[in-house]
C-alpha cells in the first residue's frame, strides 16, 4: 500500500485530521504530507479546511453536476471558505442546493451544527459526520440539480428560524436582484431566507449582470453577498452606495 493509500485509510478512521497527526501516523515530514495532500485534493477525494483534512465520502456522479463542479471551481472554493467564517459552532444553518453550497459543506465538517438542506449531495456528504445533525427538507426531486422542490419542503422552511441561511443563484444584479428560471425554485429560495437571522448569497461574479424570469429577492433583502474579486470595480462602487447588504469580495487565486 503506497503512502497516498495509507493517508486515505487513516482518513476513513478519523473524521478530521491535521498535518501533524498524519506526520506522526506515517513517520514522514510535514512537507511530504503537504505534497501528498495537494495531490489528493486535486483528485477530489479529500477536502482541506482551516481545521484540517477530511475525506470526501460522497462525490456526485451525475454528468451535469460534475460539469457544474468544474466550472469556476477556484472561485467557488474561495467563496465557500469565506462563507464558513460566518458560521459559529452550534448554529442552525440552511444550505441551498448547488455546487458552491457543496463546497461550503466541505468546510463545515469540523463543527457541531444543525444543517437543513434541499440538496441530496450535501445531505449524504454531511450525514457521515457525527457532530452534524442533518435534515433534508423533503418533497419532489428535481433531476437537474438532484435537490428537493415543492410545497412539502417550503412548508418546513416557513416553520423554522435558522441562525443563518445561504442561497445560491443562476443570475444576480443590483437592478433585478436574485433571479431563477422557474417559479417553483424562486418560491423555495424565498422561503429559505425568509426567517433567517442572517441571509447570505454565494455566487461567483460570472453570474452577475444576468437575469432569469422569476425574481427571488432584491439584494437589500440579504445581510451578506459573497462573490469573487473579479466583480467589476464600477459594480462594486454601485453596491457600496446603493445596497445595504455587506459585499464581501474574496480572492480566487
Automatic annotation (TrEMBL):
Pfam families: DeoRC, HTH_DeoR. Residues 1-55 form the HTH deoR-type domain. It comes from the Bacteria. PROSITE patterns: HTH_DEOR_1, HTH_DEOR_2. Coiled coil: none annotated. Keywords: DNA-binding, Transcription, Transcription regulation. The keyword Ion transport does not apply. PANTHER family: HTH-TYPE TRANSCRIPTIONAL REGULATOR SRLR-RELATED, LYSR FAMILY TRANSCRIPTIONAL REGULATOR. This is DeoR/GlpR family DNA-binding transcription regulator. It comes from Providencia huashanensis.
Amino acid at each position: 500500500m503506497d503512502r497516498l493509500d495509507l493517508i486515505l485509510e487513516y482518513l476513513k478512521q478519523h473524521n478530521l485530521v491535521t498535518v501533524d497527526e498524519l506526520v506522526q501516523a506515517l513517520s514522514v515530514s510535514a512537507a511530504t504530507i503537504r505534497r501528498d495532500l495537494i495531490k489528493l485534493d486535486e483528485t477530489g477525494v479529500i477536502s482541506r479546511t482551516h481545521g484540517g483534512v477530511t475525506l470526501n465520502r460522497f462525490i456526485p456522479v451525475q454528468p451535469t453536476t460534475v460539469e457544474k463542479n468544474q466550472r469556476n471551481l477556484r472561485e467557488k472554493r474561495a467563496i465557500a471558505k469565506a462563507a464558513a467564517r460566518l458560521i459559529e459552532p452550534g448554529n442552525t444553518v440552511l444550505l441551498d442546493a448547488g455546487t458552491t453550497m457543496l463546497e461550503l459543506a466541505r468546510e463545515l465538517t469540523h463543527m457541531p451544527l444543525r444543517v437543513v438542506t434541499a440538496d441530496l449531495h450535501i445531505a449524504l456528504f454531511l450525514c457521515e459526520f457525527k457532530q452534524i445533525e442533518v435534515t433534508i427538507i423533503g418533497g419532489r426531486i428535481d433531476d437537474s440539480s438532484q435537490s428537493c422542490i415543492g410545497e412539502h419542503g417550503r412548508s418546513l422552511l416557513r416553520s423554522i428560524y435558522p441562525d443563518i441561511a445561504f442561497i445560491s443563484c443562476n443570475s444576480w444584479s443590483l437592478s433585478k436582484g436574485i433571479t431563477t428560471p422557474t417559479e417553483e425554485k424562486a418560491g423555495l429560495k424565498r422561503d429559505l431566507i425568509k426567517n433567517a437571522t442572517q441571509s447570505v448569497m454565494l455566487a461567483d461574479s460570472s453570474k452577475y449582470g444576468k437575469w432569469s424570469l422569476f425574481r427571488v429577492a432584491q439584494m437589500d433583502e440579504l445581510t451578506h453577498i459573497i462573490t469573487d474579486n473579479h466583480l467589476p470595480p464600477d459594480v462594486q462602487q454601485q453596491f457600496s452606495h446603493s445596497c445595504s447588504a455587506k459585499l464581501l469580495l474574496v480572492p480566487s487565486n
